[in-house]
Structures are given as C-alpha cells and as structure tokens.
C-alpha cells in the first residue's frame, strides 16, 4: 500500500472550505487503498475561526489522525483585539478597524512570518518525523493557508527521504488581504524568499486554478511543469440525502452561502434588483448564510431591500447544503481584487452539486466563469452589468419554482471529490 501523511492545521472540529478539501481527499484516498495518516493541531490548543463538528463524520476509521500541542499567538490576539474574534475571510469578521486593530495587524504582518500559526510548527515537525520513521511514510502533503504549514514540509524535505507535495488553496504573498497586514519591505522580502524556497524544494506543487498556476509560474522560470491543478469540488455523499423538492411558499429565494466582506462588490446586483418590477420584487427573498458585514446590510436596506433580506449567519456545513437545495437561484460573488481571475471558491462546486442555477458576479473571463459555462450551471455577469444581472434574475424567476428546473449536465461529474482524489492518487 502507498502511505501518505497529510499535514494540515485545519481539521475537524474546525469548519470552513479549507477543512473540507483534505477531509474529503483523505476519505477517498483511504477508499482507494492508500494508507492515510493526518497530522493536525490538538483542538484544545487550536484557535479556529469556525467550528463544524459535523465534518467529523467524513473521517473514515482507517485514517490515522495525530494531534500535537501548539503555541497559539491568536489566543493573545483575542484578548487584546477590539473584535474579540479570530480574523478570517480577509478580515470579514472585523467590525472595528481602530488604532488598536491596525497596530495588531502591523505586528501580525511584520513580526510573525509568515503567519501567527507558525507556533504550531516545532510541535508538528517533531511529531511528523516520528510518524514518518515509525510508519515508513514515503509521501508527505502539506496544505495551506496557513502558509507556515509549508515550512514544516520544507524542513522535512531537507532532512528525510520523502516525496513532498505542497498544496496551495490560496496564493501566499499575493493573497488579496496581504496589504491589510501593513507589511514593510523587509517583511515582504522575507515572505517572498520563504515562498520561493517552498516552490523550488517541493517535488510537486498543487493549486486550485489555472490563473493561480500562472501566477506561481511567473515567480520562477523552472517550476511550471511541477505545478498541477486540482480544484475544489463536491462530495455526492453530502447531497444524496437532501430533499429534491423546493419549499411550498411563494417566494423566489436568491441565496448566498459563505463569507462576504467589503471586497465582494454587489452594487451591480443591488442596482439590478431595483430595476425589477414591483410585483417581482415583492416575491423575492435574498438570503445570506454565513458571515456578512453590517455595511452590506445597511447598503441593501438603504436601497429599499430590507424587507427582502434574510440573514441566517454561520451554520454547519450540512445545514448550509439544505439552504442551497431550498433556493431558486444561488449567488456567487468573486472578490473584486488583484489576481481574482484565479479564485475558485469551494462553494461554486457545491452549488453545482445542488443543481440549482448559479448567478456569478465576477470577471467574465475568470476560472469560475469558465467552469460555469463549461458545466452549463448558470450565468456569469460582470460586477457592474446591472442590466444583464436583472435580466438573468427575471429569466430564472420565469422558470418558476419547479423542482424539475435543475442544472444536470455530465460535465459536473469531473468535479466530484472522488474523481479529484484520483488525481491526488496519481501524484502520490
């Protein structure tokens, strides 16, 4: 049997898309007769922004999970920050940006490189060495963010005879909130140096989209061939037991699932809603499941959409899927930031699995738009094209709340977690 050690900070009971990616891969690798080991932080020491214990059901009995202690700098952050929460989603849960918060961000971005979770590394490295030696592991996979996890893989590669696969769910120095950390030139130099060391030393680099691969390849001339694209996806097991019928009320539900911060521009969407007929508007509910800032709520209310708005908040993954199924249209917004063409959020694929039409706001030539077009899962509109957005909302409304109006194309199958796990297996 092939043996693989997956090193990841985020693992159940932590919640979020980053957890799901490797929980699902571990699940299917184990089914493919890969002896699968996972090294993660002990939940008693971890600082998770989100908790979702429902994801624990996806961990097969055959997967061996090891936990270690950690020195968590974010524990100190919570005590002194005005926000009293672990920041996540590009600081989408940061309600106050006062002088104290700016100082904390500066400290985070310049003194704890590449990130504050580096306090886990010395514990994880020691335990990883023990696991590799005891179980004769031949392949190690590190996944980030936090990008400090990649430094564990770098150190293991320098010491031991292993194959090292570095998985990047997001860019490192090009992540959209990087400048919010107020990095100095010295901090950026150090981060880029660490990034290049990982790129050069890893045997294989995995990322989620074509545009992120191009971004990484532009940094070093000799790494393009070892960068593989394995996107996020959906697990059929999460969707088979959900209801196929829609609600019995008369409202047309447009739902957004996930985090939405100030980089997620929905002005065009708001303008599009205002352009609809009064009769149609009276039948629409706009539902946000996840973290939404007060700025968005106030913006929508100021535009006469307060009655339409339904804010659910963060819910476990299984409950979020139920909300997706009970929707008539699923809204997907790509952050309007530099290098956003490569953003492939995990919820895109879960939207497709629900077979509910998707309305994308983002770059029409981005990777997400290409997949929506390829799978015929909905439509992609530019952020500010309110006329086109309004037209598409009216189009889907006319289709009616009919359970038979579902997106169902064979192209979706290539994005199932099981199919994608076979690509991981090829690398192992």
Helix and strand arrangement:
Blueprint: E1 3-7, H1 17-31, E2 35-41, E3 64-68, H2 73-80, H3 99-111, H4 121-135, E4 139-144, H5 148-159, E5 163-168, H6 185-201, E6 204-207, H7 210-217, E7 227-229, E8 252-257, H8 267-275, H9 278-281, E9 284-289, H10 294-302, E10 309-311, H11 317-325, E11 329-333, H12 346-354, E12 358-361, H13 367-375, E13 378-381, H14 386-399, H15 417-427
Parallel strand pairs: 1-2, 1-4, 2-3, 4-5, 5-6, 6-7, 8-9, 8-11, 9-10, 11-12, 12-13
Give a brief rundown of this model.
The chain has helices at 17-31, 73-80, 99-111, 121-135, 148-159, 185-201, 210-217, 267-275, 278-281, 294-302, 317-325, 346-354, 367-375, 386-399, 417-427; strands at 3-7, 35-41, 64-68, 139-144, 163-168, 204-207, 227-229, 252-257, 284-289, 309-311, 329-333, 358-361, 378-381. With 428 residues, the chain is an alpha/beta fold.
Features:
428 residues; alpha/beta; 15 helices; globular; 6-stranded parallel sheet
Report what the structure shows:
The chain has 428 residues and is of the alpha/beta class. 38% of the residues lie in helices and 15% in strands. The chain is built from 15 helices and 13 strands. The chain has helices at residues 17-31, 73-80, 99-111, 121-135, 148-159, 185-201, 210-217, 267-275, 278-281, 294-302, 317-325, 346-354, 367-375, 386-399, 417-427, and strands at residues 3-7, 35-41, 64-68, 139-144, 163-168, 204-207, 227-229, 252-257, 284-289, 309-311, 329-333, 358-361, 378-381. It has a seven-stranded parallel beta sheet with strand order 3-2-1-4-5-6-7, with helices on both faces. Strands 10-9-8-11-12-13 form a six-stranded parallel beta sheet, sandwiched between helices. Helix 13 links the parallel strand 12 and strand 13 (378-381). Helix 1 (17-31) crosses helix 15 (417-427), helix 5 (148-159) crosses helix 6 (185-201) and helix 8 (267-275) packs across helix 14 (386-399).
């Amino acid at each position: 049997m092939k043996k693989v050690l997956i090193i990841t900070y985020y693992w159940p009971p932590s919640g979020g898309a980053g957890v799901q990616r490797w929980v699902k891969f571990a699940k299917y690798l184990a089914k493919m007769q890969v002896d699968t080991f996972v090294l993660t932080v002990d939940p008693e020491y971890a600082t998770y922004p989100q908790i979702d214990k429902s994801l624990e059901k996806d961990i097969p009995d055959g997967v061996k999970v090891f936990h270690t202690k950690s020195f968590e700098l974010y524990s100190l952050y919570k005590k002194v920050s005005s926000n009293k929460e672990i920041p996540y989603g590009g600081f989408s849960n940061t309600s106050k940006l006062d002088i104290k918060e700016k100082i904390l961000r500066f400290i985070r971005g310049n003194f704890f490189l590449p990130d504050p979770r580096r306090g886990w590394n010395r514990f994880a490295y020691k335990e990883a060495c023990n696991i590799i030696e005891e179980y004769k592991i031949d392949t190690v996979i590190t996944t980030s963010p936090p990008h400090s996890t990649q430094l564990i893989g770098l150190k293991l590669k320098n010491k031991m005879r292993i194959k090292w696969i570095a998985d990047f769910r997001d860019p490192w120095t090009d992540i959209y909130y990087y400048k919010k950390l107020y990095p100095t030139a010295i901090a950026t130099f150090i981060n880029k140096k660490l990034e290049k060391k990982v790129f050069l030393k890893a045997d294989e680099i995995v990322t989620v989209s074509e545009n992120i691969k191009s971004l990484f390849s532009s940094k070093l001339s000799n790494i393009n061939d070892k960068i593989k694209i394995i996107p996020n996806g959906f697990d059929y097991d999460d969707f088979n037991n959900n209801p196929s019928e829609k609600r019995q009320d008369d409202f047309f539900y447009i739902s957004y699932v996930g985090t939405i911060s100030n980089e997620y521009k929905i002005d065009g969407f708001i303008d599009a809603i205002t352009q609809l007929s009064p009769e149609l508007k009276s039948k629409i509910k706009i539902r946000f499941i996840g973290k939404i800032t007060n700025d968005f709520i106030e913006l929508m209310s100021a535009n006469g959409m307060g009655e339409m708005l339904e804010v659910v908040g963060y819910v476990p993954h299984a409950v979020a899927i139920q909300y997706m199924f009970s929707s008539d249209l699923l809204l997907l917004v790509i952050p309007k930031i530099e290098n956003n063409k490569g953003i492939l959020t995990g919820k895109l694929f879960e939207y497709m699995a629900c077979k509910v039409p998707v309305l994308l706001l983002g770059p029409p030539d981005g990777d997400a738009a290409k997949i929506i077009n390829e799978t015929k899962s909905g439509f992609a509109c530019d952020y500010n094209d309110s006329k086109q957005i309004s037209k598409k909302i009216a189009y889907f409304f006319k289709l009616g709340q009919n359970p038979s109006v579902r997106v169902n194309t064979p192209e979706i199958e290539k994005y199932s977690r099981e199919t994608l796990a076979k690509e991981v297996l090829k690398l192992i």
